[in-house]
Each structure stands twice: as structure tokens, then as C-alpha cells.
Amino acid sequence: MNNLNFNHSSNLLIDSCYSTSNGEVRGVFFVQTIFEAKGLTQRYGSSLVLQDIQMSIQAGDIYGFIGENGAGKTTLMRIIAGLVFPTRGEISLFGKSGKELRSARRSVGFLIEVPALYPHMTAQQNLTFYSRVFGVDDASRIVEVLEIVSLREVGDKRVSEYSFGMRQRLGIAIALLNNPKFLVLDEPINGLDPSGIVEMRKILEYLAKEKGVTILISSHILSELQLLATKFGFIHKGRLVKEISSEELLKSAASQICVRTPKPVEVMHILKEKLNIATVALMNNGEIQIPKDSMELEKLMTFFLQQGIPIEGLHLSAPNLESYYMDLIGGRVS
């Protein structure tokens, strides 16, 4: 029996391949776990920042990490980077833990909080400096990463002249210098203008699909994260409350009829009393949501006209990440 362990284009690993008596080749297929947390807890004084986190990221995932400010996202990323040591529990990278984590981190790229750039230096000079820090001897790698983040044409321009989006892309370039298999990104698209967000999404999609890089990314822009991520983890007050794939998200909720009116509370009660619609939700943004299966859209519009109820907007919504998150943490009232 030959034991093989090698990278496949789909990030699968083949283990324990062997030939049967009739010459048929068989093997056990499994997906490599890139990152895993077991019972991860972080306490600062009397405050619990992370509470018993059980979490895993598989090869090929673009893992969207979602939570409010102070939920513990950055703390977990800093633990992955080795900048913070957990109070309790453990993590593993590529199956390595304990003393082996230091060597495993050489295959991880990080952009946590604001990228540390030298504004008086050019992009190339910044990358040359970090190449020495990371022990990257291949000078051609600087050109490669500048190409990936679309900064090659301005590589000799001082960083002080860069826009915010360009600085973020340079931060990604630094994180890519060591040719990582796993990329950890803390809020890389927050603060970018629409064109910058699209550019960043293209970069991350290219890295995931063409280079096979597994990505952990946090962001408050949930609509954008839904376009990018293949799996989502929701953290709330230090607890990982849910993990769900993008496919499961789409199946998780039926389409909703969304109604905007200047009197949402009054209209919500009318719908319950006169149309006997039991499930009516008033969202934090003032929008009323009704399950599409409980009422035909045409009948609802006719009812509003007959009752003289002023309507500012009415549309159908597909399941979306923002609504799922708000429901999960109790962000709506019924």
C-alpha cells in the first residue's frame, strides 16, 4: 500500500491509495483542514472576548467571518497570527499545532487591521523590506504580487500618494509575498469606494479560484461578502453561534414581500388583524417583511389600495446575508 499526500487542483488530498486484486486503484478522499479551533477562549481581566470557539476552515473555502464590533473577530485572527496567546483551547494550521505552529504560519499571509506601510517609500521598496523580513529571496515575487493586485504600473510611486484603496491592495501584496496557502484578512474592503470594492473582490476571487488560496475574511459589508464567500461563520459576543455554507444560506429562507410605508407599526397590525397573516416582521430599517407563500403579491397590493394605506415601496427579496445575520442575533421585532 502506497501512502500519498499531494495537492490536487480542487484542493483535495488523496490518502492511502492502493491497488486491489483485480488491479483497480482505490483511495480515500478527504478535504484538508486548513484551520481549526478547539475550545478557543480568550479572557482579558474579567472580560471574555472569545468563548469556547469550535471552528474549522477547509481547503478551498472563502470563509466570511461576521460579527459586530467587539465580537471577537480580530482577536481570533491575532491568535492565528501568533500575536495573542489564548487563555484556553488550541488552534491548528494545516494539521499542525503547539510548537509546530510557528513553521505552519510561514504558509499563511495576514492583513490584520491597517497595513503597516512606510509612506515615504515606494510600493517596491515596501515589498523589498518585507521580503527581507519574511525571508523571501526571489526578487521576481515582488513583480508577481504587484501584478496580482494591479499596482505594477505605480510600483515606483511613493505610498504617501496612494489612495486608501491602493494602500489596501498593497497590504494584500505584502500578505502574498510568502506565496501563502491561507490568507487571513481583517476588514480589507471596509472604507473602500464602490470601484475599490469590486477590484478587491476580483483579486480575492482570482487568488481563490486560480491560485488555490484558502481565505478567512471579515467585513461589515455583508452584501459584498455574500457575493464572495463560500462559507460563513457568525460570531456574537465572543461565541461562534452558527456556521453555514453559501448553498445552505440560499435554501435557509423563503422569498419575502418587503413593504415600505410611513406607518409600519400600524400597517403591521392591520395585516395581522384583517388578513390573518401570522408571520409579519418589522425590520430595524422600518421595512415590513411578509413570507411570499402566505399572501399573493397582487392581492396584497389590492388590499393596500382598498384600505387607502400609503405605500412607499414594495418588492420581493431573495434570502440575503444581512437578514439572516439579523435574525440569528435577534435583530428584528415581530
TrEMBL record:
The answer to keyword Transcription regulation applying to this record is no
Query: Carries keyword NADP?
Result: no
Gene3D superfamilies according to UniProt: P-loop containing nucleotide triphosphate hydrolases
Keywords noted in UniProt: ATP-binding, Nucleotide-binding, Transport
Pfam families given for it?
Answer: ABC_tran (PF00005)
* Single Gene Ontology MF annotation: ATP hydrolysis activity
What sequence ranges are listed for the domain ABC transporter? 35-262
Please give the family membership noted in the entry.
Answer: Belongs to the ABC transporter superfamily.
**What is the designated name of this protein?**
ATP-binding cassette domain-containing protein
Species of the source: Paenibacillus lentus
